Amino acid sequence: MAATDKSILKRLYVVAGFMVLFAGAVLFKLVSIQVVDGEKYQAMADTRTERMFTIEPNRGNLYSDDGSLLATSVSKYTIRFDAVTVSNEDFKANVKPLADALAKNFGKTSSHYQQILRKARENKNRYALIVRNLDYSEYMAVKQFPLFNKGAFKGGLIIEQNTKREHPLGKIAERSVGYERVDENGYYTRVGMEGAFGQYLRGISGKRLKQKIAKGQWKPIGNDNIIEPKDGYDVYSTIDINIQDIAHHALLGQLEKYQADHGTVIVMEVKTGEVKAISNLGQTADGKYYERLNYAIGESHEPGSTFKLVNFVAALEDNVIDTSSVIDTEKGAWKLYKHTIKDTKRGGHGKITMSTAFEVSSNVAFAKMIHEGYKNDPEKYVNRLMSMGIHKELGLPVLGEGKPVLRYPGDKGWSGLSLAQMAYGYEVSITPLQTLAFYNAIANDGEMVKPRLLKEVKEWNKTIEKFDKKVLNPAICSQTTVKKVQQILKNVVEKEHGTGHGMYSKNFSMAGKTGTTQTNYVSRDRSKYEYISSFAGYFPADDPKYSCIVVIHKPDKSVGYYGADVSGPVFKSVAQKVYATSPLTSEVDVKDVLIAKNEDSHQGYYKVAQQKYSSMPNVKGMCGMDAVAILENLGIEVEVKGNGKVKNQSISKGTDLRSVKKIVLELI
Question: SMART domains annotated for this entry (predicted)?
């Protein structure tokens, strides 16, 4: 019996010893957690319940040259309610007045909002949605509502802000305005001016501390940010929204008429290189057009006959020919090796001067001129083109500029036909803006300026950085050559035999060159070839202010495909309307520039400036800018809703103008 008792007692001592040791271990661990690793575990707890969030700054505004908005950040606010932090006394006293204020401002009944608030209180909801998508003025009003005016803790007010980028012009110049986006891995996608000037627009992020609450939701702690975000700078571009609107609708109308695949228009100020309009429209599967890609800057292609100007300048500079040199067009066909070069006119033009050859756009004459003039020294020809900068990119801030292709003798693809082919715009590749830069240089008496989209960066009214004209080449050729080709470009439009004579107007002058390029060489069946139609030039022809290029790809051949027919009318329309809305020379009487072809439908061109109406005209179907120009010149205040063409006008046609002070135009 005694032995048994001793055994039991020994076991009790062992158990008691283990319990003491276990208690000691627990006590040691508690002390260790509290004293030794306390800060570590506290930090772990904090990371699970509190987290620092990034606050995106308001992106700066993007403006046109006259201060009109092209892109802006619009802040939207969501209001939520923390029903736990509010005292019973404050909740009971303010729940109905708060619901009444919400109902008065946001359209639903007071009982609706009372139900939301009381249910949140009952369920101890710390993140109850009250109202979302408020603008700034609505948000400021909510902060003054009963209960919410007590702030984040006593009033339970939770404010969430998000920013949306909006384009006031809608789809007009959408690709040129562009965007800047960043993915979850921090990689940026930059398009157009928004992407090019993101360094100025994007601002600096702030920091906000938030606490994790029920259901994985995060609630801001306190009223203030840890680090306040710094908004981006405002950027002023060179775009003129009036000219942009004119270019967009002129191009759109022609694309629709010819059911073309895509097209672009660029308008540039001659002296400064400021791009005043840049429109890029591509066709969707259902036949509609929208700003799909930046063809003006990014699409390098064979330019066709617009490249003849480059070759004419080169040949004049190298004394290969003169404007009066006579060349035989060989009845419109010239065989070089096994390849036959043809003119569009059957039978050719006979023996003509080189100035006439340019005006009628003879492929044979130019192929002969360049091949015969440089066949013994083809390097001299390419070096001349390089001296004018044809092989260089313009170095634009907008990403995606297409690379020019200019082969050198000995390069892959160079052959005995290369000189002749390059003479009329094949075996060379260049973007529309690069082509325009050359034509602009001729208009600018030989000085090539860099096309420019940015004028100024500002913070409120303070200028941060200003961007001035940049000269790429002070003289691409001699003044003698400049004056000769300026006259010939003018002749293309003014002389009856010129390929651009269909654009001629006695009321204002233009100068330029047509271009028609064959494409889609995959098929040997010439009936399956597609075409690129172009017109490049400037206006007025004397002392020019603007240069312009129009390029339209793959028009319906059954309707037409020559540059003079497809792209020329767009150039003329842009020139006419820019003249009408902004007189360029003292010699031009604006009221005589444009006469409407059809007053009821306004197809063609609109009446302008000082011409007086006795009654309200019909402006339905016109583009918005045109309608506004007419009506404001009549002394009428115009309110515009929407973008595009006029769908409805609030004052009907025929109304006595003496009784009209204001009109509302609805655009689509």
Answer: PASTA
Which backbone phi and psi does 469 adopt, to 5 degrees?
-55, 140
CA 322 to chain centre: 42
Asked if pLDDT for residue 6 goes beyond 70, the answer is: no
Does residue 566 lie in a domain region?
Answer: no
Residues 6+ apart with CB under 8 A from 278: 173, 176, 239, 244, 247, 264, 265, 266, 267, 294, 296, 297
Tens digit of pLDDT for each residue in 547-597?
999 999 999 998 988 888 999 999 999 998 887 776 444 344 444 444 433
Whole-number Å distance between alpha carbons of 175 and 193: 9
| 3-state SS, residue 125 | coil
| CATH code, domain carrying 634 | 3.30.10.20
Whether 104 is in a domain gets the answer yes
CA angle 652, 654, 659 (to 5 degrees): 80
Residues 213-219, mean pLDDT to the nearest whole number: 66
Query: Which of 586, 578, 546 lies closest to 436, judged by CA?
Result: 546
The residue behind tokens 């006031």 is 168
Q: Find out whether 548 and 266 touch, Cβ atoms under 8 Å.
A: yes
Region 629-655: what's the mean pLDDT?
A: 79
Q: 264 pairs with which residues across the strands?
A: 280, 551
Structure confidence at residue 519 as a pLDDT band (50, 70, 90): confident
**Cis omega (within 30 of 0) on the bond before 303?**
no
Residue-wise pLDDT tens digits, 367-414: 999 999 999 999 999 999 999 999 999 999 888 899 999 999 999 999
* DSSP structure class, residue 617: P
Residue 482 amino acid letter: V
Q: State the pLDDT confidence band at 321, using cuts at 50, 70 and 90.
A: very high
CA distance 116 to 110: 10
User: Which alpha helices (DSSP H) does 397-478 contain, by range?
Assistant: 418-423, 432-443
d(CA 557, CA 226): 64
Of 131, 165, 199, the residue at which a domain comes to its end is 165
Given a cut of 70, whether residue 524 has pLDDT beyond it is no
Q: Is the pLDDT of residue 647 over 60?
A: yes
The answer to whether 250 and 575 have CB atoms below 8 angstroms apart is no
Strand 351-353 to 454-459 pairing: unpaired
Residue 20 pLDDT exceeds 90: no
Q: Which residues lie below 8 Å from residue 607, measured CB to CB, with a gap of 6+?
A: 594, 595, 596, 599, 617, 630
Token pair in block for residue 581: 């809305």
CA pair distance 498, 489, nearest whole angstrom: 9
In angstroms, the Cα distances linking 510 to 495, 546, 619 are: 12, 10, 28
Tell me, yes or no, whether 526 and 635 share the same domain.
Answer: no
| pLDDT higher than threshold 80 for residue 23 | no
Question: By three-state DSSP, how is residue 488 classified?
Answer: helix
**Closest to 233 in 3D by CA, of 467, 464, 468:** 464
Quick check: 469 and 291 in contact, CB under 8 A?
A: no
Q: What is the DSSP string of 288-354?
A: -EE--S-HHHH--B--GGGGHHHHHHHHHHTTS--TT-EEE-GGGEEEETTEEEE-SSTT---EEEH
In a domain, 284, yes or no: no
Domain CATH for 124: 3.30.70.2110
Most confident of 38-52, 474-488, 569-583: 474-488
Q: Which two three-digit tokens encode residue 355?
A: 């100035």
- The CATH number that applies at residue 409 is 3.40.710.10
